[in-house]
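Report of the visiting student (M.T.), summer placement. My assignment was to run the structure pipeline on a short list of targets and document each run. The first record concerns JmjC domain-containing protein.
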Amino acid sequence: MDESLRIQRFEQIPSSLEFESLIQSTNVPAVFTGCVKDWKAFSKWNPSNGGLDYLQERVGSGIVEAMLSKSAPVFYGDLRSHERVPLPFSTFIGYCKQRMQNRDFGCANSELESHGLIGRDLEHAEDAPEQIYLAQTPIMNADNEEKVQLETLREDIETPAFLERKALASINLWMNNAQARSSTHYDPHHNLLCVVAGCKRVVLWPPSATPMLYPLPIYGEASNHSSVALENPDFSTYPRAKCAMEHSQKVVLHAGDAVFIPEGWFHQVDSDDLTIAINFWWRSNIMSSMEEHMDAYYLRRILKRLTDKEMDQVLHKTSSTIMGDMKRHICELPSNGKADHRGNDLDQACEEADSKEKEVPQKNLLQDLEPIALQVLHEIVSLVHDCINISDHSQLLQSTLIDDSAARVKGECKKIVPANLFHLEDDPVAKILWSLQPSTLQHVFLAMAYNFPRTLEALILHLLSPVGAEVLTRKFDEMDQQITEEDRNKFYQVFYGAFDDQFSAMDAILNGKESFALQVMLCSRQMCFFWNSMFVISSSITYSSAKCIFSGLLGGCLWMYATSISAVLGGG
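After the run finished, the structure tokens were exported:
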């Protein structure tokens, strides 16, 4: 668990400013001990001290909406698992009293029957009182005053001082007469849950644990609830749920305590017999400032950030092993820097042809390369030779001496690197590039551009896989941070100047990079969760359909990179 996500417990109630700047702004839950002990409700609603009589007297027989569960003591948020039924408040209080007095529930069942509750999907009528839960019964509702059912209780509770500046969306009563468990869910508002009587045990997960909790589809009416059952979870259907508890935190709230649950944090609550709680909901600053016309932009930004994070994980999870393997491999090359005779023959052919094609604008960089860079250069040239099928070296030599050299080389070259190569450990070129320091990569590519431009062209146009393109652009980004603007512009001019069609090289790199990003998006754990929650994968949705949808959502995300390269090369 990230230490920044640890739940803190406060013995002193924070001020409004402290809560805003130190607690709410972090979007991490916090427990406030004794937060509501000064409320009238804390003393007057106590079931052990005549609180039930007081509540019945205040509210009387006013009708409230009760939650009738098919799976008590678990109360699932999905409408298929429960019913909302009208019930006189006094009747519910009667059940609570009978529970306290441990009486026979026969009389209570007759009252349930008189209100039409018996026989409604209940297997055992005598269990009905324990299946009733006053959940989210409104005391105040800013959007719908007509929905308020318990306004008379408002004067017994006080808005905590640190919430006085908040525009509250609603205040609700939660009351159960028997042990109850709420299903795992998150709220679309910030939440302060206050226990007036009894005890609640709350398990919390940060939004980053969402893939392990399998939320229901986003278009459904219970999209904020987990699909995983609390009792007898099906790990064959939801395998990631096995690890869910490793990412959770537990807090126990006694009477008088409160917990701040930020929006988006999943929570599951167990309540003891006769537990009474009040909660306050208010919109977060982020949600309050989100205008509808910005929704598409926010969605794209979130998708882009998730994709970037997944790409980092895909590359870095194997990077340490690959780095060690590549360093050992390079060090095992012959000390004279020659990879093998085939690579050397290709070097000589390219070098002779290129020397006749154009004069090298500066001294031969091969002499100045450090041993490690020279060895890497020969390794790359050897890979190009092995992967590109050249039938006759003399044809390659001739092709570099005529105007249509690029077309001739392209005609003879076969791109044998599969377009679906996305794993770093499977791509020898990507592994070499990943193992290099940016400065070494810069020197190697400059040497190739000056001495072996056709080999560089073949490498980029015919041998660069999607993961190789991603690695290459990351190395370019690292290099850009380490050199001056003048040197940066000069490098890209030389690098792209080695190609007969400079923009085809840029297209090859960008197309590979975008292909890698799309594959990561479609296959990663985080994005599989997003895909499932947004659209629900089924046999009728094909890979191409998914690609079209996500391409539409993320299309053009790399335009800034393309623009920066165009600025170096000139043009629009």
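Residues 352 and 397 are 8 Å apart (CA to CA). The longest strand covers residues 132-141. I thank the supervising group for their guidance throughout the placement.
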